[in-house]
Write a structure and sequence with these properties.
The chain is about 40% helix and about 15% strand. It is built from eight helices and nine strands. It is globular, with a radius of gyration of 18 Å.
Length: about 210
């Protein structure tokens, strides 16, 4: 962390302008588009801060599971939300992702950290976007929640989705990745095979100590 990863994610998600280069999703350039357009182009995003960026703490669980996808054809009819479809959508995700909640109408800010992260992951995986950005997806979670979310990310990848995961947990990177890119001082300094590199070697690249 601290070598430009957060800035890179902000640029990819449309929260920070880019000065040069090109961002493409499934062949479509999205350099100067907003977040909604990037979602429509096929991007999904699990932010590092599930409280500030990932959820609206005073809104209902159902609303949070819908956030960002209000115009999806499964939920919206001619610009109007289908409330029955919204409730069914929320109930299905609560069951699929084992979210411990008394009701879809409960205030999401009352959930535990692990359940709150399940809400974010459920919402972002629900619509099978081709590209998922996952920023520190298991930080601060207990062992059970970590295993659950890692399994969901792996299932998404194995089903054909692309995952750009940013993590400071080297064991997590090695376990889940098929390719590792290491950043140092804002630049990618190495592309590594997770099966052919050690955590110690990755650490050297991260600190700029590895001879290139």
């Amino acid at each position: 962390a601290g070598n430009g990863q957060s800035e890179m994610v902000e640029a990819l998600w449309g929260l920070r302008p880019i000065s040069h280069g090109s961002i493409r999703v499934t062949g479509t350039e999205i350099n100067h588009t907003n977040v909604a357009t990037r979602r429509s182009a096929g991007m999904a995003y699990i932010p590092e801060d599930r409280h500030r960026l990932g959820t609206a703490s005073k809104a209902s669980l159902s609303s949070n599971l819908l956030m960002g996808f209000q115009t999806h054809p499964d939920i919206s009819r001619r610009g109007w939300l289908d409330l029955g479809a919204v409730d069914a959508h929320a109930s299905e995700l609560i069951e699929q992702f084992d979210i411990k909640a008394s009701s879809p109408d409960m205030v999401v800010g009352t959930l535990s950290g692990g359940n709150l992260q399940r809400v974010v992951v459920a919402r972002e995986l629900a619509h099978h976007s081709p590209l998922l950005i996952a920023e520190q997806p298991t930080r601060g979670l207990d062992i059970g929640a970590i295993a659950f979310i890692r399994r969901r990310l792996t299932d998404f990848r194995d089903a054909g989705g692309a995952v750009l995961m940013v993590s400071a947990e080297l064991s997590e990177i090695q376990t889940l990745s098929t390719r590792i890119l290491v950043m140092f001082e804002g630049s990618i300094v190495a592309e590594l095979d997770p099966e052919a590199v050690t955590e110690a070697e990755i650490g050297l690249y991260m600190t700029g100590s590895h001879a290139v």
